[in-house]
Design brief:
Layout lengths: L26 H9 L2 E5 L5 E5 L2 H8 L4 E2 L32 H10 L4 H6 L1 H18 L3 E2 H6 L1 H11 L6 H11 L6 H24 L5 H5 L6 H32 L1 H9 L4 H12 L4 E6 L3 E3 L2 E3 L4 E5 H4 L34 H18 L4 E2 L21 E3 L4
Parallel strand pairs: 2-8
Antiparallel strand pairs: 1-2, 3-5, 4-10, 5-8, 6-7, 9-10
The structure holds protoporphyrin IX containing FE.
Protoporphyrin IX containing FE binds next to helix 11 and helix 15.
């Protein structure tokens, strides 16, 4: 017996954002959040679970150890792959495991991702962004900002972090682009994933033989096996590349669509910190997560049964008017503290300080170098990553000055 209110009719997860603005979540999500911030949802495989759209519900779920992240327990919220068709989590993947396995990896990695360490990488981010902006200038517009800037900058920062030797970086970057599916077929992308695993194993062997000053070398002093180290290397690339690249690409698109905001960022460098938090909130590129209840849980007046999957809509939570005033407005001066764009709880993004450093440098530098930056195609022709796990743009054709 419980006092929990009777549950509403299950809905399907709204995924269609085609109707409106490229930066807004599907409009239906806002209606569902207003009606009921935690409500039953019908999953594509027929499972009846839950959908959390309110900021407080999403936050509470992510912080609650009675919910699991183990892939094998989750029902997948998107049409397409059912959970049984998902590949088993490779070793070193932190997002699909629970304590105590998760705690062991997380402890080993956390000390290597401190704010101080990541700030030390700022000088390298500055050099890498400058190099790429120089190359864009030499080339002349129009260029695809994704291929010229948004993707290579974070790819090279991952090289820096992992300690990929200079001589191997060009090859690594090509591989990383193929793994991300940039201008390659699905077969090429699949082949690149396999090649990446080989590259990571070779890199780990090289670091064991001759350690240098980087994360992988550092981790060879722990009790992690070679397979775990290679797995972690591959996972860091997967977790840190598409995310940051799409924040730069979609972030640039959002600023180009809000010229007064772009001007503010250009003329006031002190704005970079709040601007990046606001862009993270407003864009919520890692838009959706999922958890499974390990036991019966009463939350926000609802009874979630053991085994139920709960889809957490980060994008709906980050636009919740109960948390953020005027949530659908991009306002770079807003204090967006408390946004959930990096998740929350034990799985909260390990690389968030690195991502912040990259975004705080890369976005202002782009708009300062090219004050007349503009889209080289009509905004409706920018191909969006609709339906993908990480929202963003496939390409962003831009030009500047008389081109
Ligand atoms: C986890 C977003 C950049 C490494 C996460 C999660 C989110 C997220 C939402 C939580 C997933 C969950 O709860 O299941 C982002 C965004 C980024 C970004 C929006 C860029 C703007 C990075 C970078 C790295 C990184 C640069 C590292 C190089 C990780 C790792 C995890 C993670 C290792 C797993 C943590 C765990 O499960 O304990 N990220 N991320 N991320 N992220 Fe990021």
């Amino acid at each position: 017996e419980t006092d929990a209110a009777p549950a509403a009719e299950p809905v399907q997860l709204p995924i269609d954002r085609s109707a409106g603005c490229p930066f807004d979540p599907p409009g239906e999500l806002a209606r569902l959040r207003e009606q009921d911030p935690l409500r039953p949802m019908r999953y594509p495989d027929g499972h009846i679970g839950w959908l959390a759209t309110g900021h407080s519900a999403v936050r509470a779920l992510a912080a609650d150890s009675r919910f699991s992240s183990r892939y094998e327990l989750l029902h997948y919220p998107f049409p397409g792959a059912g959970v049984s068709e998902l590949p088993p989590a490779p070793v070193g993947d932190l997002t699909g495991i629970d304590p105590p396995e998760h705690t062991r990896y997380r402890r080993l990695l956390a000390g290597r991702f401190t704010v101080r360490r990541m700030r030390e990488l700022t000088a390298r981010v500055e050099e890498i962004t400058t190099d790429h902006l120089d190359a864009m200038e030499r080339h002349g517009g129009p260029v695809d900002l994704v291929q010229s800037y948004a993707h290579p900058v974070p790819a090279l920062m991952i090289c820096e972090l992992l300690g990929v030797p200079d001589a191997d970086r060009a090859a690594f970057q090509t591989l990383a682009a193929a793994v991300s599916g940039l201008e390659v077929t699905e077969e090429e992308q699949f082949a690149a994933c396999t090649a990446l695993q080989d590259t990571m194993r070779e890199l780990v062997a090289a670091k064991r033989a001759r350690p240098t000053d980087d994360l992988l070398s550092d981790l060879t002093n722990s009790d992690l096996s070679d397979a775990e180290l290679a797995g972690i290397g591959g996972f860091l690339l997967a977790a840190g590349l598409d995310t940051t690249a799409n924040m730069i690409g979609l972030g640039a698109f959002a600023l180009l669509s809000h010229p007064a905001q772009a001007d503010a960022l250009r003329t006031d460098p002190a704005l970079a910190e709040t601007a990046v938090e606001e862009l993270l909130r407003y864009l919520s590129i890692a838009h959706t997560g999922v958890r499974a209840a390990l036991e019966d849980v009463e939350l926000e007046g609802r009874l979630i049964k053991a085994g139920d999957s709960v889809t957490v809509s980060v994008q709906a939570a980050n636009r919740d008017p109960a948390k953020f005033a005027d949530p659908d407005t991009l306002d770079l001066r807003r204090k967006a503290t408390g946004h959930l764009a990096f998740g929350h709880g034990i799985h909260q993004c390990l690389g968030q300080q690195l991502a912040r450093v990259e975004l705080r440098v890369a976005l202002p530098a782009l708009f300062t170098r090219f004050p007349a930056l503009r889209l080289a195609v009509p905004p409706q022709d920018v191909p969006l990553r609709t339906g993908m796990n990480i929202h963003g743009v496939h390409r962003l054709p831009v030009a500047w000055d008389g081109q």
